[in-house]
Amino acid sequence: MFRNLGIAVVFALVASACSCGKTEPTPPITSVALSQPADGATLTMRDDVANDVEGLQVNVRGSATGFAAGATAALALDGTETGQSIGLTDGSFSFAAVTIPAGAHVVAVTVGDGAVTNQASASVVFDDSPLPDSIEIAAPLGGTLNAKADLDPEQEALQTDVSVNSVMLTGGTVRLCLAAEGFVGNGDCKQAQGQVLGEPAALSTSGTTTFVGVTLPEGDLALTAEYEAENGEVLLSQTVPLVVDTIAPTLEFVSPRSGEMVGAQAFDVVLQTDAEANQRVTIESSTKPGEPFYDNVGADGSAVVFVSLEPGVQELTASLTDKAGNPATASIQLTVDLAGCLVELTAPPTGAHFYFNLANTTAAEGSLRTYTLSGSTENCAGGTVRVTKTVDSVSAELGSVIAAEDGSFSFVAALADGENNATLNVKVEGGLAPNDGVTLVYTADFTPPVISFAAPAEGQLITQQTTPVKLGTEGLEEGAAVVIESPEQTVTSHVTAGGEVVTVLSLALGPQTLTASASDRAGNPASRSIGVTVDVQGCDVEVSEPGLNAVFNLANAIVDDSVSP
What we know:
Helix content is about 5%, strand content about 50%. The chain has 1 helix and 41 strands. A 5-stranded mixed sheet has the order 2-8-7-4-5, with no helix packed on it. A hairpin with a 5-residue loop joins strand 27 and strand 28.
């Protein structure tokens, strides 16, 4: 019986100690860090945050993570709790005005939430060597204040906080003094140059007196903090030089302008700014983000930035900062179109040698004649259409017109007779680098050719129905076709090198008109007509006496001795 009871007890003990497959929860990972004072720091009375309390007082601050809600932080100095305990606020803690004795010490903060604890510590040394009374402007420290330092850009001038640190001082007041061109304050300062800026403030017992929202004008300034003791005596002052520059520099694109089309991928972009010389200008394209192009501002305020862009529509953004650090940006939209201003001539048609003649031109001043060129342009509606004529390798611009909004244009070109194998070139300039345009090779011939009949002659009687015809010509090119017509036949013959035409023509009987016609290479016509008569029988004669087969004898004849047989 007792043996069995002993076994039962053992089993019960084993069972109570067995985890029976259960997994213990993993404790949370926690951390504690001290941000103030820093580990290894040497503290002096300059770090004092309570001038009205004897000795050195510092703030102890830090953060903690991984703890449950309701966690608290406890402060200890050299391993002894000070009795100060506070709850965490958004994972951070702050112990105000902790007294640190002279010498070396360890400041520790322990954070716990009832389940876990963790600790952070910092070793510090308090050097209590006497320090001279001092006052200094801690912020701003001097230098240049730009727009980024402005607490209220909506207000005129710069708005900023001014912090003044004091050491070994108690009671009294601190006033700010400002020396600046044109500045008028609340009367003259007692010790410093300039005038009182704003209202004085009582010296803060924390060692830092802060003036909130101080207005500082643009330009070169001298900012001074004066300390006045309770007896009205100004004991200390400190001045910092400042430059206030919150005005952003100007920046604009000179070339190209927004909306323009550019006919090249690589070109110079010209900008103008009032920023100081040697400031860097950056240009970036929306089609090549992260690949900026650079140049520095010249003495004249210009910057020429060489860019290499992708074809198509894009935005160029230029940016720079002046020496004060104020930024400026400018943007334009442009299109890179490698085709340039495309030009098409609809009259006259291009692609072949064109001849201007009497029929397709209009008489003008003197011997000149005119032709109205017409065409259209793509990409450069509203652009300038320039027409150039080249004759015998000598070029001259005939003039220019503005293309309509739909791209169409017309231009009246003046031409002179005899311009042979000359060219007319039409280009359009409309914000793009001009391309070669379109070129027309032409000849201007305003002299009509001449045809004359050498044989037969005007009014000639011809006794054969087939007769040779010979023509003379002037102004007809060798090989030109000449059409010769009679009522009986039409033939075509060609001009020889000597300017003649020779052929054979069938004629009708009786009176008729022969016509020769031709056109020169330019299309100028020529025609000549003559009248001839064809009679192949000659003059008919009828003898009525004597009759047919008559015999002449002495009886029927008259003897005339004066007539020789």
